[in-house]
Write a structure and sequence with these properties.
Blueprint (H helix, E strand, L loop, with lengths): L1 H23 L10 E10 L3 E4 L4 E4 L1 E7 L7 E9 L5 E4 L5 E3 L4 E6 L11 E13 L2 E10 L2 E8 L1 E5 L2
Antiparallel strand pairs: 1-9, 1-12, 2-3, 4-8, 4-10, 5-6, 5-7, 5-9, 10-11
Amino acid sequence: MKSLKGKFCLLIILSAIMIMSLSLNEGRAASDVALSKGQLVYVPVYSHIYWGDLEKKFLLTGIVSVRNTDQDHAITIVSADYYDSDGKLIKSYLPKPLTLNPMASSRFIVKESDTKGGSGANFLVRWKAETEVNEPIMEAVMIGTAFSQGISFTSRGKAIKNLK
């Protein structure tokens, strides 16, 4: 009975996360094309989520994807820094800037065994371009398997500062 109750709680948590992520994407018209020369982007990443009455940890692999959506111009990822739930820097993923050609993408992976981030972990990604370009898409994909169960969900990055 406890096993079914735990699975049911996990299903409810995942459903709530999916509903929240869908609601964040509403309200922006498809015709709105934002151009920028650079931004600081906040990307939520979960190294684990909690399930059950005892708040057991369900460990997750986090994959942060950065996608250059501009068909004509490259962008440069200046930094990709990983922070824990308390806002402490855990790791800087880029030793030097990384150029993404038009329509190219890159990713940063937080291993399932890396539990330092916590349920409130995040990335701050700085990018820039020589000219105004289509804003890149940044999102995190979290995936985990345990107890013959598999879960996955995404979170979308949000620009928190325009860079000059």
